[in-house]
Specification:
The protein is mostly helical. The chain has helices at residues 2-14, 18-38, 49-72, 76-90, 99-113, 121-131, 138-149.
């Protein structure tokens, strides 16, 4: 994952694609911040790919919120910039599951974990995040879990 991001950065530099370059640098900075936070006893291994996927998903969520705020404030050019960054970040995520696929995944994990009540929601969500990191909107998944267990 890191190698792909680095290669895309180099390609953006060669193409002189400033908006793309800026976004990829933001991605690298976020990963580097997490790497530094994860260091233990001077051992610098870097965060694993699944954590990188979580970082990217968080970045997308932040940009959606910012774009909405900018639109409400009438700052359409800034909202468009946020949306352009979302498109670049999404390139590094695996294909997103459709709503029916999310529903099927939730049903499967609920069955496998033996969840029966809403108290089991944390266990179900943890299993979903482990198995489908970067592939689904966990807000929607949480709603599906509540419907099934509630």
């Amino acid at each position: 994952m890191r190698e792909r991001i680095t290669n895309e950065l180099k390609d953006a530099m060669r193409a002189k694609d400033a908006p793309r370059l800026s976004t990829i640098r933001l991605i690298q900075a976020a990963i580097k911040d997490r790497d530094i936070a994860a260091r233990t006893d001077g051992v610098d291994q870097g965060v694993p790919d699944d954590e990188i996927l979580a970082i990217l998903a968080k970045m997308i969520k932040q940009r959606h919120e910012s774009a909405k705020t900018y639109e409400e404030a009438g700052r359409l050019e800034l909202a468009e910039k946020e949306r352009a960054e979302i498109l670049v970040i999404e390139e590094f995520l695996p294909r997103q599951l459709a709503d029916d696929e999310v529903e099927a995944a939730v049903r499967e994990v609920v069955a496998k974990t033996g969840a029966h009540s809403i108290r089991d929601m944390g266990r179900v969500m943890a299993a979903l995040k482990e198995r489908y990191a970067g592939q689904m909107d966990f807000g929607k998944a949480g709603s599906a879990v509540k419907r099934l267990l509630g």
